[in-house]
Please model this.
Amino acid sequence: MFEIRTDLAVEAREMYSSAHNKDPEGVIVKEDIPYEDIKVTKVSITNEEGEKDMGRPIGDYITIDMPEFTYYDGETMNRVSEVMADSLSKIINKDKHKNTLVIGLGNWNVTPDALGPRVISKIMVTRHLKELIPDKIDENIAPVSALSPGVLGLTGIETVEIVKGVVDKTKPDLIICVDALASRRLERVNRTIQISDTGISPGSGLKNHRKALNVETLGVKVIAIGVPTVVDAATIANDSIDLVLDEMIKEATKGGEFYNMLKSIDKNEKGRLIEELLSSKGGDLIVTPKEVDIIVDSVSRVISNGINLALQPSLDLEDINQFMN
Amino acid sequence: MFEIRTDLAVEAREMYSSAHNKDPEGVIVKEDIPYEDIKVTKVSITNEEGEKDMGRPIGDYITIDMPEFTYYDGETMNRVSEVMADSLSKIINKDKHKNTLVIGLGNWNVTPDALGPRVISKIMVTRHLKELIPDKIDENIAPVSALSPGVLGLTGIETVEIVKGVVDKTKPDLIICVDALASRRLERVNRTIQISDTGISPGSGLKNHRKALNVETLGVKVIAIGVPTVVDAATIANDSIDLVLDEMIKEATKGGEFYNMLKSIDKNEKGRLIEELLSSKGGDLIVTPKEVDIIVDSVSRVISNGINLALQPSLDLEDINQFMN
Amino acid sequence: MFEIRTDLAVEAREMYSSAHNKDPEGVIVKEDIPYEDIKVTKVSITNEEGEKDMGRPIGDYITIDMPEFTYYDGETMNRVSEVMADSLSKIINKDKHKNTLVIGLGNWNVTPDALGPRVISKIMVTRHLKELIPDKIDENIAPVSALSPGVLGLTGIETVEIVKGVVDKTKPDLIICVDALASRRLERVNRTIQISDTGISPGSGLKNHRKALNVETLGVKVIAIGVPTVVDAATIANDSIDLVLDEMIKEATKGGEFYNMLKSIDKNEKGRLIEELLSSKGGDLIVTPKEVDIIVDSVSRVISNGINLALQPSLDLEDINQFMN
Amino acid sequence: MFEIRTDLAVEAREMYSSAHNKDPEGVIVKEDIPYEDIKVTKVSITNEEGEKDMGRPIGDYITIDMPEFTYYDGETMNRVSEVMADSLSKIINKDKHKNTLVIGLGNWNVTPDALGPRVISKIMVTRHLKELIPDKIDENIAPVSALSPGVLGLTGIETVEIVKGVVDKTKPDLIICVDALASRRLERVNRTIQISDTGISPGSGLKNHRKALNVETLGVKVIAIGVPTVVDAATIANDSIDLVLDEMIKEATKGGEFYNMLKSIDKNEKGRLIEELLSSKGGDLIVTPKEVDIIVDSVSRVISNGINLALQPSLDLEDINQFMN
Model:
């Protein structure tokens, strides 16, 4: 059977609700609108039933929806960074003495996958200064380190092995992992930030066989931050087919021959049709805005600013920019 | 009405034939198979009817289809470069004294559009050496210059203005323009090279409002070389819908109510459905392999080698590499 | 005889004065200190004698000296951009309707030479908008276009040919050329901006055989903006030798044998010694800070902001950043 | 006292011999000339006296001198890679089952320091394939992994901590570290490859306060491979001064007043003079060819090919290129 891939909890919930005509069990949703053009949605999975229905572990999943042209407006970018910092701070439990390791997942050579490494290049790194020149560094500055471990194909080493090795040596109190995601809907591509306190689980995206990065594998709390930068081409094909079928199902008499035929295509043949459409190409096909290079650059600035603000509660954006230059 | 975008003449012909159940007038097609895994198709538009049916000017359009994994196999890449050089040489009318200007169209900041500029960076540039140190340069070396004019959004200047300005000063005998294209079929993405002797026309791709680069605007013969690096997301949506409708039309009784409804969706509503699917995003949505960065790099090597071989008939690939390093 | 290379007029004047124990004729110098850490020096060459003594054409050469750590402090960077915009505006004769073409000279593949192209990538380009969507563009916005023509070795075409070709087609009222320079003193590297209204002359840097870009060759007023990013290694060698000789000459009895020997080394053998030191390497040897990549990036931001402010007098930095994103 | 920095053992030996008018104790030198334009010199430090005289630990230091224009000639590059592979193989004790981790030291944002990370990007990485799809990988292929840990300023973590963490998890049998070096002589810049079996020691380059990467800190044999990409600007200043002094000392009567004065400058004042020349700049000043970007790219190809050949004795360069594409 064809399965839609999404890394976003809000979409997993939508998909469950639409497929089962009911909300998943043990899942609580709260919305907040800090600015009229920014929405913060918190999806909390509270028990094992929710875990099963949602296909992801117990925990909080915060989604920040930002305006369409955020990446073309410095002022909006800063507001989103601040909203993000606010959400992140609540999960972190602001503690200026916390030693945090920020990990940028993904392949720096593949633009839609380069979000993590690009965020890392803009993180305010202070751990070494606190150790080497403690007298010159304000005591309110928190120790932060940062690493882009690369991907299995480039290093020959599972990401979790590299990160665990570094964690064992540097003993951070907290890990933040940044990653590019796939979403289910085009309108969320580069428009949504997801923050969760569950780390990165193997099953979070369906095709994502990567090993988990979480408190079980690393021994430290792991916060995951992601932004969808692509939609699978198969998802677009699926949605196109659904749209036609829905259109016709609306017209057809329920239970009639035509109606049943439409339902049967939906159930049995859709996967085959999608495969027929896309199978000719070996590689992963993605749908992305043409300007993906420019957008990933801007997104990475929003995310890094948000992380820097949350990790350094005694500084504002201006202080941070000053430090970074 | 929704219109499928393609920059490839072979696809324009396929689309015409499939829509009208007949071949376009005045269009001659010849195929050649120089290696069992490489196919060369020459589509010649010979008169005004063909021009109208095909939506592109009278001239020759050569398509080279290469094997699926060309970009992962240096030996195949070289064979494709040689086949391409051979086709190109025939159009050029090999003349070692010809002064050629190679133009790399497209935006170097947008990976799927960066093919032209990347090819330029690998062209064997000799014009200045012929002028400055003629005694040290073998007389068989042809004078070649190369330019990446950028795109309107980056320069504020129409590409044709920049190129015409440079042509007026440097007076080349021949211009070769390299550009990234959009194709209609995923299986042609990064798998097809199109060479034509008609230059680049404004109507070649439907959404392509760029001004023409051809003998009329530049005063010199213009050869266009392109490789499709993307498919419009709208094309995938369209194909998905077609596939479902075709599937059902096959089953439905011709002339019956159901049959008519399907036909009517096809005709009247498809455009609206596609818009509904994709309209949420402002930018151009494209479908591309995830590894587009790596592939564009390899394609640009194949193309630049092909051009270098065709422009320097007295050299082989080894000589050219030696010169380039 | 060994000749020291400098592209800076202030240094040419220093060198003349020190060699001849008098100031060059017809050269007027004015200093201004807009901020306590920024100095603006205007060297005006007013007649042919000055031209000969200074080795550069009649005109104004403004030098802005900025604080040592400018590139690590966003606030200082903005102040320098504003001082630069102010100096540039006076030369331009602020006229919002002026159509300006900004040219970024240099090779984008060679970091110390990449200043020009990097500035171009941050110029606020508006010419096409004024032509294509005049109703949507504030009438106070001036038309600006921008081009990085590359270098002779990459294009096979003299820069002046490319620029002249584009000028003939686009008919700008003013040209601004940005280039990386060589200075004579390490303390000026990346610390000095030179603005001149004379364009770029072939003799400005001694080893610089490039053809001129000025009102004679282009038919339009050309303003040159440059920042020294390197010192020739030969200059360092020369200075080291001078320092030792000076040290000893101070001690030696004037006219004595030792004194004469020192003077003779200075005059006759210095060139040979420097050649002996450096000749083993084919290429141009330069002295540069190790972090040249990072610094060139920051310098290019200061320069592009300065140009944007001067060309768009109705906008401030915030407006410009908003437009650029 | 001013101290010349070199990371090359052959230069340390030259400097010792020239300063003490005798060869260092316990140091054995062997030369080999595999091609008329390539020289291999093996400096073996055999005891503690040699260790003290040479300022580096007991072990073998192999230097490969290559022709001046290697980087402009693919054929010479391949010959150098093969000579390097041969030297490296002898140190490794070819054993196809060895599990090797290749580490690329240095900062990818600073061109002269980016050699290590660029080599890593061209290493044939196989460890994951041996683990994930052992049946599809020829048993003669050795498991290799690769990592660019970044630099302290970018990560906040000492390189040795990152590497030790990864070593603990992945348990390689051998580590190869690649790094950009500083040399003492311009003619060795980008012309010399040093291979040593002692790892990277804190005292190897005088200003190099980095912690050691060797068998003591990592628990596994560490081979260091380096190429000098710069000379300290201070070294050039020093050499210039020496050259003048030597010139005069030759002329002066031994023991005379002038002679003594020259000797005294040499001993007591040279450091002050150099500082006077260079102290105006905060950062590290380096001397480097202007085309450093292009050269580092070529050097990294020579080194990565050499490593790939040595680690995969069953493959030739063609096999390796095929695998890499």
